[in-house]
Write a structure and sequence with these properties.
Layout: H1 14-34, E1 37-38, E2 44-46, H2 47-54, H3 59-64, E3 67-69, E4 75-78, H4 83-92, E5 102-111, E6 123-132, H5 137-153, E7 159-165, H6 169-185, H7 192-200, H8 211-217, H9 229-244, E8 250-251, E9 263-271, E10 279-285, H10 289-292, E11 300-306, H11 307-316, E12 329-333, H12 336-350, E13 356-358, H13 365-374, E14 379-383, H14 385-390, E15 392-397, E16 403-407, H15 411-421
Parallel strand pairs: 1-5, 7-8, 12-13, 12-14
Antiparallel strand pairs: 2-4, 3-4, 5-6, 6-11, 7-9, 9-10, 10-11, 14-15, 15-16
The structure holds adenosine-5'-triphosphate (ATP) and magnesium ion.
Amino acid sequence: MLTKAPRGTSDLYGSAMEAWQGLEEKIRIQCAAYGFKEIRTPVFEHTELFQRGVGETTDIVQKEMYTFQDKKGRSLTLKPEGTAGVVRAYLEQKMYADTQPTKLFYFTPAFRYEKPQAGRMRQFHQFGVELFGSGEPAADAEVIALASQMLDRLGIRNVELQVNSLGGGACRQNYNRMLEGFLQEHREGLCETCRERMERNPLRVLDCKVPSCQEVMKDAPLIIDNLGPECREHFEKTLGLLDAMGIPYAVNPWIVRGLDYYTKTVFEFVSKEIGAQGTVCGGGRYDNLIQECGGDPTPAVGFGAGIERLLMTMEKSGAITHKAPGVDLYIAHMGPQAQAKAFALAQSLRGQDHHVETDLLGKSVKAQMKQANRLGARRSMVVGDTELAQGAAQVKDMETGAQETVAFDGLANYLMRQKSIEPGGN
Ligand code: ATP
Ligand code: MG
């Protein structure tokens, strides 16, 4: 128990941590280019927020939430996704009063009680963006374009952008009735869950993974064929802008997304390389959510991407690069006075952003040099009585073996010069 993390969680360290940080850095650059600003919201929120914001009929709310009572008996929930908290903050902080649109991005852990398997965990992480205050197709296009360019920037190949429209308002209601009629007729062929959800949220039946349901649904009417003129125009304009940017896509009329709140455009980026859990990024327009959460009607569009799945896809695409360890100088030392000098030098060099290591294990000079090798240090030097007396030491290039005498007070300049002429120097 004590040495085993809970099921469906993982530790992040070592080279995976490096890959993660590389990914975050690239995504931050991407968001800056689009003018999206970072937001961090609490890891837990009032349970009602997710019941409202994610939707009572979703698997997330019905089965997957980590809900608990605090000591005062309030019901709180660890966030299962990123959007609801950002919407709450948008309203609470009155961001709608600023110049619109509001463009936000987040990195967050998310918690779902699911059956752990490859690409599916109980604590996972999401990167997402939300754009509030524009109902124009331009906003849908900008958000999809950001996702598309981000995947390019991460070196992810072999993902397909699939888009659909779920309509909104009147056409969605008409379609729901039509679909309900169809489902009533084919009730026999549907699984238990779908029979339950066909009245409350018929759209979700299209999403069912049970083969018999999929068989039945092949003949179901599709929302894309039943859009009203406004929703159709919105969809076509969105696609037109994607065309203009040269972003390839496929219309997939079966995409409905797992959450209740989507309207009009929905989309997914699907990887063909990471198995059954292939959706690396999914999102769409959700024009009713902000009102649902207690605000004035406000159009919104966004997406969420699973960071673990992005990294899995990057791995498959060979897009993960590892940085060299980058120790600039290893200072070995002999005796207490030399140690004091080594520490003083290291402290000053580190203050100037050089990565310096020195012995912490009380080892012999020979063992310290072995350690320098193991750490992959670019250079090393030994400080002993002679060096103390001279105020200088031999700096050795660990690759070539070449040595050069450098005065202690000239070390910072020396390192800076060496690093500036090194290929890939840091
Ligand atoms: P799926 O169909 O795979 O269950 P979802 O529709 O539940 O996904 P969203 O709620 O849209 O997923 O979450 C956004 C992204 O978060 C997904 O596209 C996926 O990359 C990632 N994701 C969702 N659930 C998990 C999980 N349990 N473990 C790891 N990543 C996840
Ligand atoms: Mg899911």
